[in-house]
Amino acid sequence: MQRKKVEHYEISTYGGLAQLAETLGLNEIKELLGSTLEEEKETDEKLSAIAENSVNYEAAEEPEAL
Ligand SMILES: [Fe+2]
């Protein structure tokens, strides 16, 4: 959970900086920041999948209630 929080900060930061670079007409920098932003989004999705699988695994391991 903490790791996803960090990813969300990164997504917010890179998104804001990419927007600023676009506003300033710094297109090459905007593209670089945009690439990093996409990587952060992909990492966030992977972490979500890991968390989901972990929850499902733990649920499957729980004894059934009577
Ligand atoms: Fe990250």
Please sum up the structure shown.
InterPro entries: DUF892_YciF-like, Ferritin-like, Ferritin-like_SF, YciF. Pfam families: DUF892. The chain has two helices and no strands.
Could you characterize what this model shows?
By secondary structure, the chain is mostly helical. The chain has one domain. Helices cover 86% and strands 0% of the residues. The protein is built from 2 helices and no strands. Helix 1 runs antiparallel to helix 2. The protein is rod-shaped. The model has no long low-confidence stretch (mean pLDDT 93). Bound molecules: fe (ii) ion. The site of fe (ii) ion has 4 residues, from helix 1 and helix 2. Fe (ii) ion (FE2) binds next to helix 1 and helix 2.
Can you lay out the helices and strands and say which pair or pack?
Blueprint: H1 2-23, H2 27-61
Fe (ii) ion binds at residues 7, 10, 40, 43.
What ions, cofactors and ligands are bound?
fe (ii) ion
Form type: rod-shaped
* DSSP strand count: 0
Number of helices: 2
Biggest sheet descriptor: none
Structural class: mainly alpha
Helical coverage, percent range:
over 70%
Approximately how much beta-strand content do the residues carry? under 5%
Overall pLDDT level: 93
Rg value: 18 Å
Order of helices and strands: HH
Gap from first CA to last CA: 32 Å
> How many domains, as an integer?
1
InterPro entries: DUF892_YciF-like, Ferritin-like, Ferritin-like_SF, YciF
Q: Key features?
A:
binds fe (ii) ion; 0% strand; mainly alpha; 66 residues
